[in-house]
Design a protein that fits this description.
about 25% strand, Glutaredoxin, about 40% helix, two-stranded antiparallel sheet, alpha/beta, six-stranded mixed sheet, TlpA family protein disulfide reductase, 2 domains, Thioredoxin-like_sf, Thioredoxin_domain, Thioredoxin_ResA/DsbE_sf
Length: about 170
């Protein structure tokens, strides 16, 4: 009986440790070297954005949560863009380009919008399959936090402020 309780305690401790690791995103990793083709035909590489805090949001026009969260992403961008914060919205490969262009134009998205025509960007960023999936990258080019689904925007804003304050 004592061994069972001990084993149960070990299992609970392991799950708690794993949960804390995921919650705290202790497994920071370098953002993948990527080239994003923007709607205007230009390209932007992840290396070009080093030195900034970067939000990379994988989304689709057919994703209700993505559409609903976009005004909050815009507000976050507008609030911090002059402090070294940038945003890149990456439309999924299955999203018709005309829908993406229409969405970006009608909503006057102020940040960079790219289309992942081949699905390679989604694969490079951790095999993204669920939208929205959002990555927060620090000034050194490391992924600090990953959100699957809509982020907790007050918590995201606090994290952005913390990262912007770091040298």
């Amino acid at each position: 009986m004592a061994i069972r309780r001990w084993m149960a305690g070990v299992v609970v401790a392991a799950f708690a440790a794993a949960g804390a690791w995921v919650y705290l995103d202790a497994g920071r990793r370098a953002a993948p070297a990527s080239t994003f083709v923007l709607l205007d035909g230009s390209s932007q590489s992840s290396a070009d954005l080093r030195g900034k805090v970067l939000l990379v949001n994988f989304w689709a026009t057919s994703c209700a949560t993505c559409v609903a969260e976009m005004p909050e992403i815009v507000a976050l961008y507008e609030k911090y863009r002059h402090q070294g914060f940038d945003t890149l919205a990456v439309a999924m490969h299955y999203d018709p380009p005309s829908y993406v262009v229409n969405f970006a134009q009608t909503r006057k998205l102020p940040f960079k919008v790219a289309i992942d025509n081949t699905g390679q960007l989604a694969r490079d960023w951790g095999d993204v399959r669920i939208t929205p999936s959002t990555f927060l990258v620090d000034k050194r080019g490391e992924i600090v936090k990953t959100f699957v689904g809509a982020p907790d925007f007050p918590a995201l804003q606090q994290l952005v402020e913390k990262l912007l304050a770091q040298t």
